[in-house]
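It would be a great kindness if you could assist me with a short task in structural biology. The matter concerns a single protein, recorded as an amino acid sequence and a row of backbone structure tokens. Could you please explain, in whatever detail you think fit, how the structure tokens follow from the sequence? Thank you for your consideration; the sequence and its tokens are set out here:
___
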Amino acid sequence: MSKFNVGDTVHLTVADSVKWAGNYKVVKVNPTTYGLERMQDGARLKAGHEMVRPGTLPDGTLTMDRDQPIVMADPIQEHFQTGAVVHMKNVRGVDPSKHWVITGQTARGYRLFPLGGSTRYYTGISASRLVRVTEIDGWKA
């Protein structure tokens, strides 16, 4: 038997879901899940009965349940467009001060050619290993 009905206001805590924590309105009740709609922007979500809590969270604060472990969110990775100038860090055999240009994206990351041209290039470099270059010789991007 479900605990909440359509139209009830509920919330998900950070302990239940770092990405989807917030206040919701129940829009559908299934035997094991609820269909939820986020109150801020109307985004839809399906959540298990065990994740949904009654009431709302105060704006700007997401409380943790004392019996739930703290789950930290992954840092947001920057997205690079083709033509962006970057430095590579933590890549073996690469000078971290050398400038590289992103020429495309692969399934595992980005494809990079050195600024100035070469036949040597790297593919599959993740965004976490790239640092955006905002100034070259006094010119700012």
User: Anything to note?
Assistant: The chain has two domains: 9-54, 85-140. Residues 24 and 39 are 5 Å apart (CA to CA). The longest strand covers residues 22-29.
